[in-house]
Inverse folding.
């Protein structure tokens, strides 16, 4: 077993453990932290596949930005776990049947029979100086330009949707209007009275 | 490393809609307050001119562009025009409704335009990745539109359900697509068909992926057992949004089914036909029986959608006769798929009219959605009661209305495919379904009005709804022209 193989198994074991903890952890904050771990180890696996750019992007974008934001949201929400668990036992048998069927079907197909080394030969060794990042960039801006542009449109829709759903003037809102603040003149606020000097 | 500029001509309508959506975004931002109707006018202009561009660039030639990810054929052009027209009609219906409820803002029109763009992308997709991205673009806009009435608990709940279940369905679809990629080594739809034809694909893995793809598709169409979201979303969303969710996306989902199943995986049709047939039969039973028990018209129409989509799938599932010659085969396949297309188009026309009538009956502070709200409509407005009468008769499949011919052509396709038992079953179930459509007619014509306030709908809505009713009636008198257009559009693409 080469060192790379050993690394693969270590990462894979941690990934599976973390993924299981995401759905079994009773505390949502723990679940999110395990998800971070899962993303991190997945990044490690991609690194082993020589997809350096994707691995780093996964860690930077998902772990660095998305999950941190997610953690904030989870911490701000007051989630009543006991209430969410109320119907756990009554729904469990049905869930077990459906989940068991899915696992059985998947294990019938996704075994080594169809995905062994003969069916999926190892990729050729890339030439020296091969840059995964450069290759990815070339494909995105040439062959995959159309879906790439559309993905940008999806991000635009997400921004519009988020603003449309959250940004609105609510009655009783004590928001300040900067334009009006700037436009204030001295005479609106200060009244200068000329008073005769008073004695004593 | 040189890249060739892709041919943009086939995609000119999509590019136009995208540019106009950005224009609406900016114009609404700067002039939205001064000119309150500007977003509406620009959106309608975009939809109409988008349709004109599709019409002008349409030809019988099949063009591929963007590294073969984009396909421009006559079928796609027809569906794009249908989608743009449907959206334009839905916008006309919804305007006063949105105005009365303070929802008539630029964001609504923007989201509608982006949803339209998503549907057009789906229609022209020749690549699984593009198909998925188009679907997400459409769905994301629709989720936001359902949630737009934020203070309403029912709308928020509907949006949450739609979003969570929709995300699950997208997950299914993606998983299935990744399996198909694993089996064939390509994401391009015509390439998948080629791999299958040369037996180069791993069939077990492909079928495994196919199951997930069908599950994702079934969710988007809204058939049993992936129908749970339909009644809640139809009921909870503002009626103007229900109108959109219930009309144009069905056309897009139909194209998706044709492109994926017929275009990509026709050679494994015996597998997906069985799945479609089962889902269709369950949908027809559940939709028709549950609709009877509903008191809410929107919910009733939601269950009726489930049964109609089941009917449409029946036609999709009967595209082959065993042992026929190749020429016959092509003819019968075409016949079944054009029957399904005809069914979808006429269904969308009818659902536009039905929800349009509900909007007509609503006014500021009042949403017409209970069956009782339809009582005595013939006395309040004989003309619009007649429009609703035509719509309901047509949905029920009463002879010599267009719904009858749609059902008839589906049954014809079923019988050609030697599925006489299924055909008889479908007829029996639609007879049961006729009860709840005719109940609406009875309430409109033979009951005393509960609420006798005069209808206050604006002229645009009245004119459009009248035209819609007349089109349904005319399509019932002369169904052949629409049918041959459907057959022609499909014939050039399959």
């Amino acid at each position: 077993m080469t060192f790379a193989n050993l690394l693969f198994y270590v990462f894979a074991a941690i990934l599976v453990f973390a993924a299981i903890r995401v759905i079994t952890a009773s505390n949502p904050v723990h679940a999110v932290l395990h998800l971070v771990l899962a993303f991190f180890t997945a990044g490690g696996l991609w690194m082993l596949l020589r997809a350096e750019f994707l691995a780093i992007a996964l860690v930077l974008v998902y772990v660095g930005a998305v999950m941190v934001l997610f953690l904030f949201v989870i911490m701000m929400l007051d989630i009543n776990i006991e209430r969410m668990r109320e119907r756990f036992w009554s729904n469990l048998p049905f869930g077990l049947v459906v989940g068991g069927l899915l696992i059985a079907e998947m294990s019938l197909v996704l075994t080594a029979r169809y995905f062994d080394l003969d069916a999926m030969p190892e990729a050729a060794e890339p030439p020296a100086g091969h840059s995964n990042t450069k290759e990815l960039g070339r494909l995105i801006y040439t062959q995959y330009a159309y879906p790439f542009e559309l993905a940008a449109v999806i991000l635009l829709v997400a921004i519009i949707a988020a603003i449309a759903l959250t940004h609105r003037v609510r009655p009783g809102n004590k928001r300040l209007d900067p334009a009006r603040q700037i436009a204030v003149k001295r005479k609106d606020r200060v009244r200068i009275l000329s008073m005769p000097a008073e004695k004593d | 490393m040189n890249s060739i500029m892709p041919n943009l001509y086939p995609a000119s309508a999509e590019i136009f809609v995208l540019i106009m959506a950005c224009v609406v975004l900016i114009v609404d931002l700067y002039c939205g307050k001064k000119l309150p109707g500007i977003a509406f006018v620009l959106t309608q202009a975009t939809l109409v001119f988008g349709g004109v561009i599709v019409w002008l660039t349409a030809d019988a030639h099949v063009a591929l562009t963007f590294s073969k990810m984009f396909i421009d054929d006559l079928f796609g052009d027809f569906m794009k025009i249908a989608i743009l027209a449907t959206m334009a009609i839905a916008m006309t219906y919804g305007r006063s409704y949105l105005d009365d409820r303070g929802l008539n803002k630029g964001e609504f029109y923007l989201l509608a335009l982006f949803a339209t763009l998503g549907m057009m992308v789906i229609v022209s997709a020749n690549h699984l990745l593009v198909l998925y991205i188009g679907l997400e673009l459409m769905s994301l806009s629709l989720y936001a539109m359902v949630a737009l009435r934020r203070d309403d608990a029912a709308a928020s709940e509907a949006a949450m359900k739609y979003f969570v279940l929709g995300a699950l369905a997208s997950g299914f679809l993606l998983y299935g697509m990744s399996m198909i990629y694993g089996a064939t080594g390509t994401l391009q739809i015509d390439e998948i068909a080629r791999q299958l034809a040369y037996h180069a694909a791993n069939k077990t893995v492909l079928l495994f992926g196919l199951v997930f793809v069908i599950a994702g598709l079934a969710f988007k169409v809204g058939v049993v057992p992936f129908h749970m979201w339909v009644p809640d979303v139809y009921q909870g969303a503002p009626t103007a949004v229900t109108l959109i969710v219930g009309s144009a996306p069905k056309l897009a989902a139909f194209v998706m089914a044709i492109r994926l199943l017929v275009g990509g995986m026709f050679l494994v049709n015996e597998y997906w036909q069985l799945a479609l047939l089962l889902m269709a039969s369950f949908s027809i039973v559940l939709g028709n029986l549950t609709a009877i028990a509903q008191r809410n018209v929107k919910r009733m129409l939601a269950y009726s959608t489930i049964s109609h989509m089941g009917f449409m799938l029946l036609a999709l599932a009967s595209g082959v006769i065993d042992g026929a010659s190749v020429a016959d085969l092509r003819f019968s396949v075409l016949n079944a798929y054009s029957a399904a297309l005809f069914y979808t188009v006429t269904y969308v026309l009818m659902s536009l009219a039905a929800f349009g009538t509900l909007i007509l009956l609503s006014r500021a502070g009042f949403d017409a959605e209970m069956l009782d709200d339809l009582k005595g409509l013939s006395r309040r407005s004989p003309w619009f009661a007649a429009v609703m009468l035509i719509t309901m008769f047509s949905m029920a499949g009463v002879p010599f209305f267009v719904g009858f011919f749609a059902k008839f052509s589906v049954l014809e396709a079923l019988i050609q495919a030697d599925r006489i038992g299924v055909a008889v079953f479908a007829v029996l179930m639609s007879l049961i379904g006729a009860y709840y459509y005719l109940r609406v007619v009875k309430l409109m014509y033979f009951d005393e009005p509960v609420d006798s306030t005069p209808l206050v709908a604006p002229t645009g809505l009245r004119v459009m709804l009248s035209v819609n009713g007349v089109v349904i009636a005319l399509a019932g008198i002369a169904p052949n022209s629409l049918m041959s257009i459907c057959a022609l559009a499909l014939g050039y693409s399959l």
The radius of gyration of chain B is 22 Å. Confidence is low (pLDDT under 50) at residues 321-326 of chain B. The first strand of chain B starts at residue 63 and ends at 65. Chain B touches chain A through 36 residues (CB under 8 Å).
